[in-house]
Automatic annotation (TrEMBL):
Alphabetical UniProt keywords: Hydrolase, Pyrimidine biosynthesis, Zinc
InterPro entries per record: Amidohydro_3 (IPR013108), DHOase (IPR004722), DHOase/Allantoinase_Hydrolase (IPR050138), DHOase_cat (IPR024403), Metal-dep_hydrolase_composite (IPR011059), Metal_Hydrolase (IPR032466)
UniProt name for this protein: Dihydroorotase
UniProt key word Iron: no
């Protein structure tokens, strides 16, 4: 088979999270990698295929931490095929998948099954996480070494907090000996049990079971004390309250290897969006006060919150069309992550390079992946997008099997025009 011709993407606005620059230029792709950066009048090899980007933005593909795919066990909610198509349409070139499947990804066999299915069905890359404890039950540690050998990039029980500190300490200590990353959900499990919203006047008026924002800080401080004890590599999947930030700062000041993330929903929505018990806005942890949302955006801009993710959690209609207290938590986000995040750019709260640092470079660095950057020699995983293209989201048009998005009917700006994995187009919007 003859090698593919080099591809030059020219006349683009390059979003480079590594240098923090937004500049005019282009990229030359060859054999699946970025071969060179191109200037405005660069001479190209004679056999080069050329795509004029028309001044649109070209950036590293998104590395999305915390994507739930229903296989195995809940394929009716999301399959690798539908999740992969949704990811490609959303500019996500690497899905870092969660282990909260049925059964959980807690053995090399289930991990290899997921990797094989993704290779067969998904047009984008898979970087799988594995569970931290067997069955995500918080009692017995998984075989971390064997799962690492099978390809696990991190270990997490998801929103099942390992309540027993002795068990969590053992997991962290063993992960430390292998250099494995542990990703945890900082919540006090007792305080947050059964909660549907964040405590406050709104929760009281709606008569809904609520949890104090202090539950997040308490859970984080417990985790950080054990990280200090063991020296583990630790990532908090979602820090969503201003009260948790001082704990995070102190951990970094004393040299702990700690990073933190947040979902796009907690950066762009607040507790009032629940409105009249709208279950598509029920997520975990629950949406917070507007003061917390603003503080989290500032923390992303300052680099205190490292990673933005979709926390893509597909739920079928039956599990969402219930009273708010009983409805399942979670929202899909693979296709809405980019346009929702661009709200923060259009409002002047983040620059495009700052946003891409959190969407691509930082998650790739944290997981030891070569993606998320534009350095020559890096994988040619890219997204070409128009940050200003307006549209109204129609959830029925999403590629995901489940349509539980809080952005249904929302006016958004930002369209993905093309997505490349290894220099090959895996999504091309009509007319582009």
């Amino acid at each position: 088979m003859a090698p593919a011709k080099p591809l030059a993407l020219i006349h683009a606005r390059i979003v480079d999270p590594g240098t923090g620059e937004l500049r005019e230029g282009g990229l030359l792709l060859r054999n699946g990698v970025i071969a060179a950066h191109l200037g405005p009048a660069e001479r190209l090899p004679a056999d080069t295929e050329v795509l004029d980007c028309g001044g649109k933005c070209l950036a590293p593909g998104i590395v999305d931490i915390g994507v739930k795919v229903g296989e195995p066990g809940e394929r009716h909610k999301e399959s690798f095929r539908t999740a992969g198509r949704a990811a490609a349409a959303g500019g996500v070139t690497t899905m870092v998948t969660r282990a909260d499947t049925t059964p959980a990804i807690d053995s090399p066999e289930t991990l290899e099954f997921a990797a094989r299915r993704a290779a067969e069905a998904s047009p984008v890359r898979l970087a799988p996480m594995a569970a931290l404890t067997k069955g995500r039950q918080g009692r017995e540690m998984v075989e971390i070494g064997f799962l690492q050998d099978a390809g696990a990039v991190a270990f997490s029980d998801g929103d099942h907090v390992v309540a027993d500190p002795k068990v969590f300490q053992r997991c962290l200590a063993y992960a430390t000996s292998l250099g494995a990353l542990v990703m945890a959900h900082p919540q006090d499990p007792g305080l947050s049990a059964g909660a549907a919203v964040t405590s406050g006047k709104f929760a009281t008026l709606r008569g809904l079971p609520a949890v104090s924002p202090m539950a997040e800080r308490m859970g984080l401080e417990r985790d950080l004390a054990l990280v200090e004890m063991t020296g583990a590599r630790y990532h908090a999947d979602q820090i969503t309250t201003a009260r948790a930030l001082p704990s995070l700062r102190r951990a970094r000041e004393i040299g702990l290897d700690v990073t933190a993330g947040i979902s796009i929903h907690h950066l762009t929505l607040n507790e009032f969006d629940v409105g009249d018990y709208r279950t598509f806005f029920k997520v975990k942890p629950p949406l917070r006060a507007e003061t917390d949302r603003v503080a989290m955006v500032a923390a992303v801009a300052a680099g205190e919150i490292d990673i933005i993710s979709s926390m893509h959690t597909p739920q079928d209609e039956e599990s969402k069309r219930l009273p708010f207290e009983e409805a399942a938590s979670g929202a899909v986000g693979l296709e809405t992550l980019l346009p929702a995040a661009l709200r923060l750019v259009h409002s002047g709260e983040l620059t495009l390079p700052q946003l891409w640092r959190a969407l691509s470079l930082n998650p790739a660095n944290r997981l030891g992946l070569p993606q998320g950057r534009l350095d020559p020699g890096s994988p040619a995983d890219l997204v070409l997008f128009d940050p200003d293209a307006p549209f109204v989201l129609d959830r029925t048009m999403l590629h995901s099997k489940s349509k539980n998005t809080p952005f249904d009917g929302a006016r958004l700006q930002g369209r993905v025009l093309r997505t490349y994995v290894d220099g090959r187009p895996v999504h091309v919007r009509d007319g582009h």
